[in-house]
Amino acid sequence: MTIDRIAHVLIHGRVQGVGFRAWTHHQAELHGLKGWVRNRHDGSVEAVFSGPGEMVEIMLKACHQGPSGSLVQLVEPVEGGDHDLVDVDGFEVRRTA
Q1: Catalytic residue among 5, 38, 39, 94
Q2: Count of domains in the chain?
Q3: pLDDT tens, 50-61?
């Protein structure tokens, strides 16, 4: 897989308790992306998507909708850092941070 783009985002709204992490994991795998997703103590969801630019863009657009039951208010980019992708094979769900 060619990694053309890495996107690190925070997703705000009603995004916990609605299966957002499982949905994100499934969608990322369907699009052949690497990275991770986790809940945050502030009620948001944090995710990193890595892969072909067009697939990352499709995933980011999907995150604006989310799974049924969610109500996404904002998908906010996070700037800087290596996005903790060094030893990630595939896409994983991480513990709450």
Answers
A1: 39
A2: 1
A3: 999 999 999 999
